[in-house]
């Protein structure tokens, strides 16, 4: 089952200094419950790709389909986790996750239950009433993951989520993310410039190779799980 389909995606930034082609004719698919990593050198367009898929950035041409429907802007069918901790410092852990929950008339009791469930999944149920400054870096990223998952998106888009963590914490978070991924019905697209991280996490690695001005090469590598 194809979840995300990207067809000939091209993104040209137009600015005072002229044009920059950040993505050129990029095509790939991700399947249900697949863990796909995108790697490539700095400046090859990784962030542009994920921001475009998130709907935070428009694209110049091509198609982005989620469950066969065109992506036109941000939506709760996609969860996002960035490198920086994008938690609200003035809100408790619970309220931070609650903030991500599109309520749609959901009674607050039900919303609380929903949030508690996701905090349990990331192992932070005891920290529901803590504030972000009281948490370690890894714990903050776990809150961000809970917030990204609380609307039960079809795909989780992660942009170097563990890039700011020390090596030991990063390693723990990688294991933790794999555990979450195995336990729920989620497809993950994960950007990293760390090849070891990609090999550890991914079913499939997409290598974005930039040739300025030319068609961008996308090399696919399958990674069998042990
Ligand atoms: P990566 O995440 O792989 O480092 P980016 O997607 O950030 O790559 O950048 C791809 C290219 O697009 C680079 O040449 C970068 O300078 C350019 N770029 C990124 N964002 C913008 C922007 N907002 N305006 C103009 N150029 C940009
Ligand atoms: P990280 O999540 O950044 O890897 P650690 O797991 O090293 O952080 O934990 C940092 C501190 O927070 C430690 O003192 C640890 O005991 C505590 N801690 C982290 N997660 C939990 C948890 N689920 N329950 C209780 N304490 C925790």
Automatic annotation (TrEMBL):
Residue ranges annotated for the ABC transporter domain, each copy included: 4-226
Gene Ontology biological process terms in this record: quaternary ammonium group transport
GO molecular function, one term: ATP binding
UniProt superkingdom: Bacteria
Keywords assigned by UniProt, alphabetized: ATP-binding, Cell membrane, Membrane, Nucleotide-binding, Transport
Homology family: Belongs to the ABC transporter superfamily.
Protein's name according to its UniProt entry: ABC transporter related
Species assigned in the record: Methylovorus glucosotrophus (strain SIP3-4)
Region of the whole protein represented: 28 to 253 of 304
